[in-house]
Amino acid sequence: MSPSRKLLTLLTLATAASLPVATRAEEPVHAAAGLATISKPSQDVTLSFSRPGIVAKVLVLKGDKVNAGDLVAEQDSTEEQAAYEVAEGEAEDTTRVGAQETIAAQKQIAYKRKMESGVANATELDEAKLDWSVGEANVKLSKFEQAQAGLKAKQAKAVLDKTKLRTPISGIVEDTMIHAGEASDAQNMKVLRVVNINPLWIDVPVPFKNVRGLQNDGRATVKFSDATTREGKIINIHSVADPGSETLYVTVEVPNPALRPAGEHVEVTFPTGGKVASADVH
């Protein structure tokens, strides 16, 4: 190659190196699928009696809807009911207090009359005053005893309430484990299971590199197995990642007014900083 041709070639290469290189538009980055997961109830409780006893009534069936505070089962409470009624009666009885107040008032009048008469000696006045003081002390004692009776009534009511089982959450009765006439004891205390599936919760394994842009109350889109979608929100970003899969669980809450069953396979996507981090759940 001639010297002039070599120079031309070098100039051409230098010019090409100085020109900008054409690039493709950046595409959204999608995270890997991560660990498989499914939807679950937002609340799931198994109810049990707190003490042994014979089950008198189970007031709900599988599939029944219940509201928080509803009575769902009862133990036999014949003895507890009787004890409560006795204690309540004693707490409400003001006869003794009234009688002691009347006696104390009469002793006060007697003392004042002796004072005003001018004929009672010092010893008689002291005795009358002491008698009045004892009467007032008896009033205080009777009021104290009535207050104690009130506490005993509250205690009896608490024992009676333990024979009644109420659901702490609203939801659907998923299962019943015991029936009327059976004994609930240390080996057989569970009564029924209540779940709340509106809203649903979904624990999503998000690749760790995509978690940084997520935050609580952030948006999430949930695609169900029949391709319908619903908007949800992030309610918890877990604090400990799985080092094996390099994922961190993010809990999403999604409304479920149609009461789709929990346990469904879903796909969740999170918009993060203009890009979409997706977790395909199978």
Overall pLDDT metric: 85
The number of helical elements comes to: 5
Low-confidence stretches: 16-35, 273-278
Query: Which structural class do you get from the secondary structure elements?
Result: alpha+beta
Per DSSP E runs of 2 or more residues, the count of β-strands stands at 13
Gyration radius (Cα, Å) is: 39 Å
The helical percent reads 25-40%
What spatial form do the alpha-carbon principal axes imply?
Answer: elongated
Quote the CATH topology of the largest domain: Elongation Factor Tu (Ef-tu), domain 3
Strand content: 25-35%
Order of helices and strands: HEEEEHHHEEEEHEEEEE
CATH superfamily of the largest domain, called what?
Efflux pump adaptor protein, beta barrel domain
Summarize the topology.
Blueprint: H1 3-18, E1 39-48, E2 53-58, E3 65-66, E4 71-75, H2 78-92, H3 95-117, H4 122-161, E5 164-166, E6 171-176, E7 183-184, E8 190-207, H5 208-211, E9 219-223, E10 229-237, E11 247-254, E12 267-272, E13 275-280
Antiparallel strand pairs: 1-8, 2-4, 2-7, 3-6, 4-5, 6-8, 8-11, 9-10, 9-12, 10-11, 12-13
Helix pairs in contact: 2-4, 3-4
How would you describe this protein?
- The chain is α+β, with helices and mostly antiparallel strands and about 280 residues long.
- It contains 5 helices and 13 strands.
- The protein folds into 3 domains: about 100 residues, Elongation Factor Tu (Ef-tu), domain 3 (Beta Barrel); about 60 residues, OB fold (Dihydrolipoamide Acetyltransferase, E2P), CATH 2.40.50; about 80 residues.
- The strands form 2 sheets. Strands 1, 3, 6, 8, 9, 10, 11, 12 and 13 form a 9-stranded antiparallel sheet that branches.
- Strand 12 and strand 13 form a beta hairpin.
- Helix 2 packs antiparallel against helix 4.
- It is elongated and about 105 Å long.
